Amino acid sequence: KTAGVLTVTIVLLAAGFTTAGLLYGLGLVNQALQMAAGVILLYTCLAAKDLAVHSRAVYQALQDHDLELARKRVAMMVGRDTQHLDEAGITRACIESVAENIVDGVTAPLFYAALAGPVGALLYKAVNTMDSTFGYKNAKYREFGWAAARLDDLANFLPARITGLIIVAAAYMLRLGTNQAWRIFKRDRLRHASPNSGHSEAAVAGALGLQLGGSNFYFGSLVHKPTIGNPEHPPRTKHILLANRLLLITTLLAGLLFIGIRLAVTVYQGKP
């Protein structure tokens, strides 16, 4: 556990000082260059485009009735076994991946960018990457990955809850099930092994009228998880496109919200 804490500390210090030093140095040369570098660094922290591209690829394979290709493509997005998934199972897996990754791939980096600029976004991504790499509860990483996993939970605590609310607003703008999104968000957001992942997933499930979660196979073993949402509709390929629209509008709303926060922080600090 001590080694894990030291690893997290070293990585964060290295990422923070390197990014801050780079931006500071560029600022001494040219303010416009510093700003451009900051925008590029922030862009590298966002995964909205990747989520949309990967989910759209799954959708296209399903539209072409190529289940084998769809299984291979959705396997790039999820950790569950996909070789025996039918069309509904592939669709559900794809939507769950989009819903869950809205936070760590979009809104959380924007949130920390609003608070601390590109350095904040890079530090968040460092935490998230360490959690994805060794923040597991298995025998190999339970002790070493403890610090990364706990820090990731802490870092996502506020962004996850804000994101659920933003998704409800996005559902309203898209004329989806706004009331249902709100009800399911309130009811099911804590029905997840992760303290944070269920918030966005519950809001998306409610907006689309789908039931997400449930039992899946992982490395050949059946794993039972709580369900999220009501099964008002069977998962269909069109729901992947609707999930992508929710992703787009949520990204735009989060961007506007957090830019506003950043401007408020800047004004409060008395900077031009």
Characteristics:
single chain, 272 residues, mainly alpha, two-stranded antiparallel ribbon, 9 helices, 4% strand
Secondary-structure topology with pairs:
Elements: H1 2-29, H2 31-44, H3 48-63, H4 67-75, H5 87-134, H6 146-173, H7 178-188, H8 197-208, E1 212-213, E2 216-218, E3 221-223, E4 227-228, H9 237-268
Antiparallel strand pairs: 1-4, 2-3
Describe the structure in your own words:
This protein is mainly alpha-helical and 272 residues long. It has one domain. The chain is 73% helix and 4% strand. The chain is built from 9 helices and 4 strands; from the N terminus they run ααααααααββββα. The protein has helices spanning 2-29, 31-44, 48-63, 67-75, 87-134, 146-173, 178-188, 197-208, 237-268, and strands spanning 212-213, 216-218, 221-223, 227-228. It has a two-stranded antiparallel sheet with strand order 1-4. The protein has a two-stranded antiparallel ribbon with strand order 2-3. β2 and β3 form a beta hairpin. α7 (178-188) runs antiparallel to α8. The model has no long low-confidence stretch (mean pLDDT 94).
